[in-house]
Each structure stands twice: as structure tokens, then as C-alpha cells.
Specification:
Number of strands: 7
Shape: globular
Order of helices and strands: HEEEEHEEHHE
Largest sheet: 7 strands, antiparallel
Helix content: 25-40%
Length: 148
């Protein structure tokens, strides 16, 4: 699935650069979170207010062909903008994981399901636990599942 519409790159230069290099290389370059060596995916979505195409590089947390999208924003007081985009348009989402481009649908999880996925997320990226400890909000987790 390719979303149609105007693409508006991130305001953050490093995000713009990473998305551009990741996509241009077919996922063989710029495929880790800055200097951590930990893999990322590119999530393509529709903006909740603008309707434009937006893209974010997010930490790769995968299990059984599904992905957890963790709205940590470093333990900040608010959830990231991409979280609201995904809630507004859960069926207009694509993930590029390396060379593979996948149409997905997202849903927010809670309760026991979130607890299981949260453990997976912290195992993949231990700072998530620190991020949750430093904020009063519950960090949201969305699951992206392949649609076709």
C-alpha cells in the first residue's frame, strides 16, 4: 500500500535525513537508532490534522509478524505527534522493515496484552523502562498488524 498525498518531512533534520537515507537505500543504510546499533523501522502515516503523509523512524520491536510502536518520546510529558496520527488513521499506515514494505493496521493495546508487549519492548530497548519511570503518563503502545 502506498499512501497518496503530499509528503511533509519531519521538522527534525536528523529524522528527515534518516528517513531519506533509509528509504533511498532500501533499508540497508540509516537502519539503526542513531549510534546505538539498534534497528529501526520507518512508519508512514497520514497526519491527523493536515491529512499529509508523515514518516517517522521508530525503534523496531517485532514479534510474530507484528510490531509494537512505543510512544515514549524519551519519557516526555506528552505523547509524540505520530501517536495521534496513527489513532486518527489506523488503517492508513505502512511500515518499511529493511527491504520489506508492509501495509498495516494499528490498534492501541492495554491491560495484559500491553504488559506482554511492554516486556518485549523493554527487552529490545531497555531505556523504555527509564522513560516510563520519569513520566506520570502511561506510555502508549500500539500494535501494527499486516493487512495483506
Amino acid at each position: 500500500m502506498t499512501l497518496q498525498g503530499e509528503y511533509i518531512p519531519s521538522r527534525a533534520q536528523w529524522v528527515r535525513d534518516q528517513v531519506e537515507e533509509y528509504e533511498a537505500s532500501g533499508g540497508t543504510k540509516a537502519n539503526t537508532l542513531r549510534d546505538t546499533g539498534l534497528p529501526v523501522i520507518i512508519v508512514t502515516m497520514r497526519g491527523n490534522k493536515s491529512g499529509s503523509i508523515r514518516k517517522s523512524a521508530l525503534r523496531r520491536v517485532a514479534h510474530d509478524c507484528e510490531y509494537a510502536l512505543v510512544g515514549s518520546i524519551g519519557g516526555g510529558r506528552k505523547s509524540p505527534v505520530w501517536y495521534y496520527n496513527l489513532l486518527a488513521h489506523p488503517g492508513e499506515v505502512g511500515i518499511q522493515d529493511g527491504r520489506e514494505a508492509l501495509p498495516v493496521r494499528v490498534r492501541e493495546i492495554t491491560g495484559d496484552e500491553k504488559a506482554v508487549w511492554w516486556e518485549r519492548a523493554v527487552a529490545a530497548f531497555p531505556p523504555y523502562a527509564d522513560y516510563q519511570a520519569k513520566t506520570d503518563r502511561q506510555i502508549p503502545v500500539l500494535i501494527a498488524s499486516r493487512t495483506s
